Amino acid sequence: MLDKKVADLLNVQINKEIYSAYLYLDFSNFYNDKGLDGFSNWYYIQAQEEMDHAMGILKYLQDNDYSVTLDAIAKPDKKLEKLSDPLHYGLEHERYVTDLIHTIYHAAHEVHDYRTMKFLDWYVEEQGEEEKNASDMITKFDLFGSDPKALYSLNSELAARVYSTSSILAQE
Ligand code: OFO
């Protein structure tokens, strides 16, 4: 039986992960409109991964006899103008999500909910990777974004990203 406060926070996190997917779909659309299909692909796949994160939590709650309630997903509200805007908003968003995960981890630790802490270890690690990816995207764009040929290469690199089901869904 999960601690109610911890489980409620996990329930809210499902919404946050789906919002992350929504936000990244918005970024994907932005780049698609700009003709940068590789950037668009990268965020499209990121959105798919975020949905996996949501499903991972949903399954964990279901497996622990918690009755999940789903809430409305907020509209993506970032004003996207410059080509680099999504990259900066992406890093900011990942840092925000890291804080959310850490808050749940802390709540689990306080009530000695070792099962949830173990479950969340995957998310803690994932957030570290995602912050690094988001930061690397900014670095690359800063280095190459102003040169059309280099931007073309970077776009081609990002077009090669492929989706594979997140390991959090393969754990059980
Ligand atoms: Fe859900 O991994 Fe980032 O936000």
Task: Describe the fold and architecture.
By secondary structure, this protein is mostly helical. Helices cover 76% and strands 0% of the residues. The protein is built from 6 helices and no strands. The chain has helices spanning 4-34, 37-63, 85-110, 114-144, 148-159, 167-170. α1 (4-34) packs antiparallel against α2 (37-63). The longest helix is centred in the N-terminal third of the chain and has 31 residues, at 4-34. The chain is elongated and about 55 Å long. The model has no long low-confidence stretch (mean pLDDT 97).
Quickly count the helices: 6
Biggest sheet features? none
What Rg do the Cα atoms give? 17 Å
% residues in beta strands = under 5%
The mean pLDDT is: 97
- Can you tell me the overall shape? elongated
**What level of helicity do the residues show?**
over 70%
Elements, N to C (H/E): HHHHHH
Q: Which hetero ligands occur in this complex?
A: hydroxy diiron-OXO moiety
Q: Separation of termini?
A: 18 Å
Structural class by sheet pairing and helices = mainly alpha
SS elements, strand count:
0
* Low-confidence runs: none
